[in-house]
Amino acid sequence: MRRILPALCLCLMVVWLRAAAQPHPHRDHGHRSLRDWPPQDSQDPKELLPYHQVATSNADFAFRLYKQLISERPDKNILLSPLSISTTLAMLSLGARSTTLTQILEGLRFNLTQISEREIHEGFRHILRKINLHDHNFKTHLGNSLFLDERLTPMEEFLEGIKELYAAEAFLTDFQDAAGAEKQINDHVRKETHGKIVDLVRGLERNSAMLLVNYIYFKAKWQKAFDVKQTTEQDFFVNEKTVVRIPMMKQKDVYHYYFYDKWLSCSVLRMDYKGNASAFFILPDVGKMREVEDSLQAEMLMRWDRSFKRSSWFSRKLELYFPKFSISGQYELEKILPHLGLQDLFTEEADFSGITEQSRLRVSKGVHKAVLDIGEEGTEASAATSTGTVFLSAPKITRTVLFNRPFLVAIVSTDTQSLLFLGKVVNPKDQ
Questions:
Q1: Cβ atoms within 10 A of the Cβ of 305, count?
Q2: What CATH number matches the domain at 226-322+383-425, 3.60.140.10, 3.40.50.720, 2.40.160.210, 2.30.39.10?
Q3: Half-sphere exposure of 82 (CA within 13 A, CB side)
Q4: pLDDT tens across 283-300, in order?
Q5: Are 148 and 172 in contact (CB under 8 A)?
Q6: Closest C-alpha among 181, 362, 377, 190 to residue 271
Q7: E strand or H helix at 72, and its extent?
Q8: Which of 52, 118, 173, 314 has a 20 to 30 Å separation from 237 between CA atoms?
Q9: Is pLDDT of 371 > 70?
Q10: Dihedral sign (CA 34, 36, 41, 47)
Q11: Of residues 163 and 169, which shows the higher confidence score?
C-alpha cells in the first residue's frame, strides 16, 4: 500500500495591470552587443555577475514556458509572470536536495558550471530589492509568503534563507482546518494584491504541510496617457471568422519607439512608463503569429531593445490605435513544469529534506494566476538573428499603427531587465 506523503502546495500568484502610454526617447548612440545585456548599474559590483546571469536565465525560462503554454492552447489568450514563477521555484530550491535541486535550477535555465547556488540566490535578492523600489507614479511590489503547518518544525537554515534572500514572511497555519487555512491564505493574498486576486486557493488538502505564495502587484502611469475622449468602438479581428467590437484608444502625432522587423514579419512597439518599466507590443503580420512565436527567445527581445537604445532614429511619430482591454491567465503548473525538466517536483521522488526532517514532503499543486488591464491612464497590474533585422524608417512622416488583430506583450523591468509579464492577446473580449 502506498504511503501518503504530506503535501507541499506550491501556489504562485501574479496580478493586475492597466495600460496606456508612450515612451520618451533615449539618446544613447552607443553600440552594444549581446554580452552587454542586461546593462550594469551602480549597485555593489559583487552583485552584478549573479544579477546578470539570473536576469538572462529568467528570460530564457520565460520563453520556454510560454512556448509550452501555447502548444497546449494555441488560439487562446496567454498571460503569466515569469519572474513570479522563477522566484518561487528558486526559493523552494533552498529546501531541495539531490536530483530535485538540480532539476529546479537547471529547469530555470541555470548552467551550474558557470554560476553557484549562492550566486543564484544573491541575484534574485538583488532583483527583488530593485523591483520593490517605487514612487507615486510607479509601484511594483513582489513578495513571498510561507504558510507552515503548526505541527511542522522547519529547519532553521531554510527559514533564515527564505527570509534573508527572498524577504519571505512566515505564518503558522492549521491545515487540518482546511476551510480556515484557505480563508487565512486567501485573505492574505487579497490584501497584498489590493483585492485583485481573490480565492486563489481552493480545495486545499488536509494533509498539506506548507504553502508557498508569491505575488506581484504592478501599477504604473504611462509617460503620456491616451485621451479618453479619443477612445471609440472598433473591430478587432480575432481570426478569419471572428470579429469583435472593442474600445480602441487613439494617439496621433505622438512619438514612440517603433520599427518593422522585415525578417520576422512583425511590428515592434515600445511604450514606456513613468518609472523603471517598459512594455513591448509585438504585432505579427496577418498569418504570421505562429512563425513569430516559434522564433521567440530572449535574444530576440534583447536585439530589439538594443536597437532602440542605439539611436533615437527609432523614435517615430505615430498615429496609434491600441485596444483597451482586460485579460487573465490561470495555470496548473504541475501539468506544465514537468515538460520543462522538473520531472520529480510533483512526485514522491522529490527530495525536500532541507525544509524539515520530520517527514517527506512533495509538491502537490502549483497555481499561477495573472491579470492584465490596459487602459488610457496606465497599467495596474531561425530567421531571427542579430544581423537579420531590416528597419524601414520614415522619421518625419506620421505612420499609422493599428493593433486590431492578435499580438504579443512583454512588460519589462528596465533596471533589472526582468520580464514581469509575458502574454498573447488573441481576443480582448475573452477574460
A1: 23
A2: 2.30.39.10
A3: 32
A4: 999 999 999 999 888 878
A5: yes
A6: 377
A7: helix 45-72
A8: 314
A9: yes
A10: positive
A11: 163
Which is higher by pLDDT, 214 or 11?
214
Largest CA-CA distance found in the chain, in angstroms, rounded: 75
Q: C-alpha cell of 271?
A: 511604450
Can you point out the beta strands (E) in 121-276? 138-149, 169-173, 208-221, 232-237, 243-261, 266-272
**Rounded CA gap, 288 and 286, in Å?**
6
CB 82 within 8 A of CB 422: yes
Residue indicated by cell numbers 490584501: 191
Quick check: helix, strand or coil at residue 48? helix
Neighbouring C-beta atoms of residue 248, cutoff 10 Å: 21
Which phi and psi (to 5°) does residue 360 adopt?
-75, 145
- From residue 37, give the alpha-carbon distance in Å to each of 32, 184, 280, 306: 8, 41, 17, 8
Show me where the domains of the chain are located.
7-19+38-221+326-373, 226-322+383-425
d(CA 82, CA 87): 8
Q: What is the mean pLDDT of the chain?
A: 79
The domain defined by 7-19+38-221+326-373 carries CATH number 3.30.497.10:
yes
pLDDT band at 29 (very low <50, low <70, confident <90, very high): very low
Measured between alpha carbons, how far is 333 from 12 in angstroms, rounded to an integer? 9
DSSP line for 287-314: T-HHHHHHH--HHHHHHHHHHHHH-GGG
All three cell numbers of 182, joined, read 484557505
- What is the rounded distance in angstroms from the CA atom of residue 421 to the CA atom of residue 431? 16
d(CA 130, CA 198): 27
What single-letter amino acid sits at 152? Answer: L
Cα–Cα distances (Å) from 347 to 35, 134, 275, 364, in that order, read 38, 40, 42, 8
At 98, is the secondary structure helix, strand, or coil? Answer: helix
Q: What is the pLDDT of residues 391-431, one digit of tens each?
A: 233 345 678 999 999 999 999 888 888 888 999 999 999 86
Q: pLDDT by residue (tens digit) across 96-129?
A: 999 999 999 999 999 999 899 999 999 999 998 8
